[in-house]
Write a structure and sequence with these properties.
The complex is a heterodimer of chains A (324) and B (75). With 324 residues, chain A is α+β, with helices and mostly antiparallel strands. Chain A has nine helices and 19 strands. Classes of the chains: A alpha+beta (324), B alpha+beta (75). Chain A: It comes from Taibaiella chishuiensis.
Chain lengths: 324, 75
């Protein structure tokens, strides 16, 4: 049996399932959304390790596992949440360990990623990328205004971004909320000068602004790379961050052949962070340098396969079938 | 659910921005670059979701005239 952990409206999962059915595989269990682990079991001894996380998908019958999207969660009751705050902190840390443990168990099967990969750290990933000789942007993480001013004096422009998560949901009531986007943005001198030096700020990421010839989205999958160039620089909406899609005049996206040495370095990088699948963002500078930005374990795939005619979904299906 | 009027939306956003300004020095140092969008949840009723049978998928929207790749090409 193949187990796929996804979301009910996740389209890439549909395409991969379509290929699995085309190849004659019927033993597939797709599990959608958040999976509560409260009443699940993790068994570990000298002979076996397994979890019954996916109910009727007997772990002994699982041949392959794909973590596409969705969550594992331990639900803590409201009375406990409203009680002593230290309790919740303890329980969240405690059950985070369990979640990671269950996640590791599913790595013993032929797998594509695991839930644990959603916790990949963008800062340590930059350090790892530099360690395998990929170019990275000069990066400063701080709340120290003096340090930001000194950093901004080195470069013509700097950008800022979130440390790890680029969305905040500020709940207004049951039916409405304010969506706060912490996207990559230019941090200009006006904003820097407006910061009081005596403060109690929380840290953020600052990086040198890179002039771009074009941007790259690269899907890495068990040693294979599928690369796409995105011409984002002629559109003001996408110039700083191509993820701010302009649906009226979408960026031109074409297949791209990475230099062999960059492919090898990306392979070493993915091995170092122990992730077998991920969507990598890079930029190519006007002088032709390839600069690594980040890797997303659950990135969008359809626009890559559709724009470049890459058989990504088919290859994922073949991998799950032990046919690659 | 009754949709809020534009003035109600703007009032809510303004209250939120005032709160942000009051706490600016306790927020991340780059909070001045954040952008905001007021969202009213419009949950699609269960009966309006399209179910894709054995795919175990339920969708509010899909690609027009979707045809699986495996039905388009013969490999």
């Amino acid at each position: 049996m193949i187990v796929i952990h996804s979301q009910q409206d996740e389209s890439t999962t549909d395409d991969v399932l379509d290929w699995l059915y085309y190849f004659g595989m019927e033993q597939v269990k797709r599990v959608n959304g958040t999976n509560p682990i409260n009443a699940k079991a993790l068994r570990i001894n000298n002979h076996t390790q397994h979890s019954n996380l996916f109910d009727d998908a007997e772990s002994s019958a699982i041949n392959a596992y794909w973590y596409r999207r969705g969550h594992l969660a331990c639900e803590i009751s409201e009375p406990i949440k409203l009680g002593y705050s230290g309790f919740v902190t303890y329980f969240e840390k405690e059950y985070d360990h369990l979640t990671k443990g269950i996640s590791q168990v599913f790595k013993q099967y032929r797998n594509i990623n695991s839930f644990e990969d959603t916790g990949t750290n963008k800062l340590t990933n930059l350090a790892v990328a530099a360690g395998v000789d990929l170019l990275i942007p000069d990066t400063l993480v701080t709340a120290d205004v003096k340090a930001i001013k000194a950093f901004s004096a080195i470069y013509p422009r700097i950008i800022t971004k979130a440390i790890g998560h680029n969305r905040i949901t500020a709940t207004i009531d049951d039916n409405s909320y304010i969506n706060i986007a912490v996207d990559t943005a230019i941090f200009d001198q006006d904003k820097i000068n407006a910061l009081p030096e005596e403060n109690n700020f929380l840290p953020a990421v600052f990086q040198e602004y890179l002039e771009k010839k074009y941007e790259l989205r690269i899907f890495y999958f068990h040693g294979q790379v599928y690369s796409m160039a995105i011409f984002s620089q002629l559109n003001e909406a996408t110039k700083v961050d191509f993820r701010k899609h302009d649906t009226e005049t979408p960026n031109r996206c074409v297949p791209y052949q990475l230099p062999e040495d960059i492919e090898k370095k990306l392979g070493r990088f993915m091995q170092h962070i122990a992730m077998n699948s991920g969507s990598i963002d890079m930029v190519v500078t006007p002088s032709g340098e390839h600069v690594f930005l980040e890797v997303n374990p659950v990135g969008q795939l359809q626009w890559l396969s559709a724009n470049c005619n890459y058989p990504i979904e088919r290859e994922i299906a073949k991998f799950l079938l032990h046919d690659s | 659910m009754i949709a809020r009027s534009e003035s109600e939306r703007q009032k809510t956003i303004n209250e939120f921005l005032d709160w942000l300004d009051a706490h600016r020095e306790n927020l991340p140092v780059n909070a001045a670059t954040w952008t905001f969008q007021y969202i009213e949840q419009q949950a699609v009723p269960e009966h309006e979701l399209v179910s894709l049978g054995k795919y175990n998928a339920r969708k509010a929207a899909s690609i027009s005239f979707y045809k699986p790749y495996s039905k388009i090409c013969k490999f």
